[in-house]
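== Protein entry: sequence and backbone fold ==
=== Local backbone shapes as whole numbers ===
==== Amino acids and backbone structure tokens ====
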Amino acid sequence: MKKLVIILLAVCLVFTGVLGYFMVKEKSPVNTSEESAPAEQAEIPEVAVIDYEALYATHDPKEVVATIDGKDVLWEEYFYNVYSQAQQTYDYFVTMANYGMAMNWTDASNEAGDSFAKYSVDMAEQTLLNLAAIRGFCDKNNVVLGDDVKESMENWRAEQIKQICGEDADEEAFAEVLKEIYMTPEMFDEMNRINHLFQQSYIQLYGENGEKLSDEAVNKFMDDNKYIRANHILLSTVDPEKNADVDEKLMNEKKNQAQGISDELRAIKDKDELLKRFGELKDEFCEDTGKTIFPDGMTFTPGTMVPEFENGCNNLKEYEVSEPIKSPFGYHIIIRLPLDADAVVGYTQSGTAVTVRATAANVELNNRFQEYLDGLEIQHAEGFTAPNLTDFIVK
């Protein structure tokens, strides 16, 4: 799922470049004021800038400089992505300079030794590939934008114009402001469209929560990733005030209490009765601060839980209850549960529950998209070479 997130981030950064610029454009990029700098602070290194006007003037805005997936890439689109990535690199240099660290466009940016100048251009071309892949993938899979989405896009666009240009701004004013970052309204609208297409690809192919993905596909996903599902009752042995183990007397009391709970549950043979009683005892005794987040148990993959808990789960059959298992958090009484495609595995930042099925659908979409992306390459037009930013550094 990581690649999918990175690709989506690359799309979102386009809007970061558009909107973020106007939020900070009035600020001085590097604080060089002797009055405002602390007396003990060392002199802030100078940050070299790129002459973007000179670079932009090297080609006509409408010149075709490359093709991707059979579609032309104009210089204005290519240049904007180079500008956007270079500005992010520059902002990084400024941040480091304010900490007293001098960085240069010719410095190595990665283990391969690529300079920051080259890295900025490479990332710009990768973003162009990502954007082309979204267009092509959605076209291939008949992902379209409905009227409701188009209306949402228009509303978002109108709101951005107000925020960037003012309440009474018109299209001409918006175009003039976008020109400051080498972007046209047409490019802005296309980025808006691609961003929504990307979101709609998941919804239209898999449903809002992955419900279109078959049980067979989800079960294979769970098997391939060795998912485990279990519930537990935790008797904490950590003193929250001291952030250390409780004293020996209380430790033994917790151990004996855990043993009593385990013995009671292990004596129940009826599955429904066992689950009911487990839930009652969990409500009464469990001291896991996250018990309300996963009341029906946790579904997880190997390596995501403390070893003692994971090993305890692996040693149980379905609906079997463990003896008390000690971990750094305390004593666990665990019940192993059968896998459930619609069990919750986590939550989004907005608090929306994410199920195994939704996760599997996201991974499958990522794999399909990545396969499409891997089949693309950027082909420079005859006579065109990727720009060397170091040739345009302002001394």
Confidence is low (pLDDT under 50) at residues 1-39.
